[in-house]
Amino acid sequence: MSLTLAPAPVLANILDAVGHTPLLRLRLGGVPAGVELWGKCEWFNPGGSVKDRTALSIVTEGERSGALRPGRTIVDSSSGNTAVGLALVGRAKGYPVELVMPASVGEERQRLCRAYGATIVFTDPLLGSDGAMVKVREIVAADLDRYFYADQYRNPANPLAHYRTTGPEIWEQTGGRVTHFVAGLGTSGTVVGTARYLHERNPRVRVVAVEPDHGMHGLEGLKHMASAIVPEIYEPRAHDEKISVVTEDAYAVCAEVLGGDGLLVGHSAGAALWAAREVALALRSGVVVALLPDGGERYLGASRGIHSRASER
């Protein structure tokens, strides 16, 4: 059997590698035979997550508007993935980057941000991403001329990234056959931007937002909207329904997809997959695409139980 390889892309710089991530057919147990379940594998971005799209869009739009210019420092609050994305983009474009994050953020992501040259300000872990958001606004207010505030929770360039890239990629990769799009709610940019594009192409596409079942959850990067500071870019009408996921169920799906498909995914990806299967179970036919924000290597310190369960399958 011969193997034909597609030509590898030739890129001008690392930022040209953002986006164009693969769509992978998944075979989770229980999904009806007539339903296709696909995962959009965002850890193939150069910074390792879907937030590379957000970071690049925010910085590019900041340059275009003149708000970001040489001599300014990029600053934002982040639970991890946007932090890495901003650190990567800032380094590639020559801007210093300062990041505000809860002290509970995994050591793996802290090291990545520092490796890209970013400085980190830590906040009370009990206050989560909301505490980091309050702190970064204090920092910016104290020195307006020094900073370009990426402001991922309010910046329209966040959903614009997914309107311009994620949505079109999913439409093209499925040949326009996508019937359901499932993604987690964090800043909400992924859901809002992708939904806007897919609904323009086909109003019948169902967009399903995924959130933790309560405020004290263990799904880093996701927000329980009823108990959190709601991002200003969030548009509840962007999604057609919302599914709540228990932390332990998301962890269990991480183990299942590792054992069955060989995919090491992050916990928010596990939440999206759990919800996607729930959607699939109610269908006789369809093409369900779940957005998988990142890989599991950034959660190894907190995921020993997941991986040991998967190895026993």
What is the CATH topology descriptor of the largest domain? Rossmann fold
Terminal residue distance: 31 Å
Work out the helicity level.
Answer: 25-40%
Name of the top-level CATH class of the largest domain: Alpha Beta
Brief descriptors of the model:
6-stranded mixed beta sheet, 9 helices, disordered C terminus, 4-stranded parallel beta sheet, Rossmann fold, 2 domains, single chain, alpha/beta, 313 residues
Quick recap:
This protein is α/β, with parallel strands linked by helices. It has helices at 51-65, 81-93, 107-115, 128-142, 157-173, 189-201, 247-261, 267-281, 304-311, and strands spanning 23-26, 35-41, 73-77, 97-102, 119-123, 147-149, 180-184, 206-212, 241-245, 286-292. It has two domains: 14-45 and 165-311, Rossmann fold, CATH 3.40.50; 51-149, Rossmann fold.
